[in-house]
Design brief:
Radius of gyration: 19 Å
Helix content: 40-55%
CATH topology: Rossmann fold
CATH superfamily: Vaccinia Virus protein VP39
Number of strands: 7
Order of helices and strands: HEHHEHEEHEHEEHHH
Strand content: 15-25%
Largest sheet: 7 strands, mixed
CATH class: Alpha Beta
Structural class: alpha/beta
Bound molecules: S-adenosylmethionine
Strand order of the largest sheet: 3-2-1-4-5-7-6
Length: 283
């Protein structure tokens, strides 16, 4: 996990659910209610402290929990243990929560397919190479009627060194290119923007059955597609770095007039560092 700039670590708040976790659970509820499905495989990528799982008991009856095979992956051992403990208190059909560094994801769950994949508030922690791979990998490992739900923040509430945040427009651009790579169908993309009390978030969902995706073809072109997609993400990030650089030059030479401009410039310094570092690592 990246380091927050202040000392408050992400704190678990089991008594209050965040809207992104509620949104994920609503997707899950729709899938679990399918009378033709007795097994629902849910993969929570970067599960952290398992926030959605902490609230599952309240919103899904035990009989329905019993359809869910929960798979959680995270690089932090203590989070994994925490989520395993919570899973053991639920009536899940099965659970498999383990330490996985996402750069190794292709060697895990080799032939496994999932009905639901969540990537909640993790995108900003991924370098462009892992981001490219994880999105393509998730599509490949989704059942044909499966859904991917992704949420993150445009600006972090607690700034983190090395974090790359995206605006909803940047995500839309990235998805447009991704869909062009994997399907011949015209991309249908809604990247929602969510106003929260102190920041703004974005989210999108992807339903595989809306696109004619040939898994065999996707598997064959997997490495090539990741490389192409990585180049696209790299280009978008290079443009972002150029924009942040211009803003910093302008503030350095002309100063700022409002607190908002000062705040934007402070955030631009962090963005500048994160983008420069990520782009240098690609080379
Ligand atoms: C901000 S937390 C979000 C956790 C959870 N999804 C939620 O919504 O509460 C991001 C999580 O992603 C994990 N993570 C970041 N980079 C990772 C990587 N390369 N491989 C595996 N996990 C990673 C971190 O350890 C952290 O737990």
């Amino acid at each position: 996990m990246l380091n927050p700039l202040n000392d408050s670590k992400a704190v678990s708040k089991p008594d209050r659910i965040l809207s992104q976790h509620q949104a994920a659970l609503n997707h899950l509820i729709t899938i679990v209610q399918n009378p033709d499905k007795d097994d629902v495989n849910w993969l929570d990528i970067g599960c952290g402290q398992g926030h959605p799982i902490l609230h599952l008991d309240n919103c899904i009856d035990e009989d329905f929990q019993n359809k869910i095979n929960y798979f959680g992956v995270d690089l932090k051992q203590d989070y994994v243990q925490m989520v395993r403990k919570k899973c053991s208190q639920l009536n899940l059909k099965s659970n498999d929560v383990k330490v996985v560094e996402l750069s190794n994801i292709s060697s895990k769950f080799i032939d496994k397919k999932f009905d639901f994949i969540t990537l909640i508030n993790i995108i900003h922690e991924l370098n462009p190479r892992i981001l490219s791979e994880i999105l393509i990998w998730s599509i490949l490992h989704l059942n044909n009627d499966g859904v991917i739900y992704v949420h993150d923040l445009e600006k972090l509430e607690k700034p983190e060194f090395g974090a790359i945040t995206y605006t909803n427009n940047e995500i839309r651009k990235i998805l447009n290119e991704l869909y062009k790579l994997i399907t011949d169908k015209t991309p249908q993309i809604i990247v929602s923007k969510w106003k929260y009390s102190t920041t703004t978030g974005w989210s999108f969902s992807f339903k595989k059955s809306y696109y004619d995706i040939d898994d065999k073809k996707l598997k064959k072109s997997y490495d090539k597609d990741i490389k192409t997609f990585e180049k696209i993400v790299e280009k978008i990030l290079s443009e972002k770095l150029e924009m942040k650089t211009k803003l910093l030059i302008s503030v350095t030479e002309d100063g700022y007039e409002t607190d908002e401009e000062k705040n934007d410039a402070d955030l631009a310094i962090l963005d500048f560092w994160a983008l420069k570092r990520a782009l240098e690592k690609i080379k």
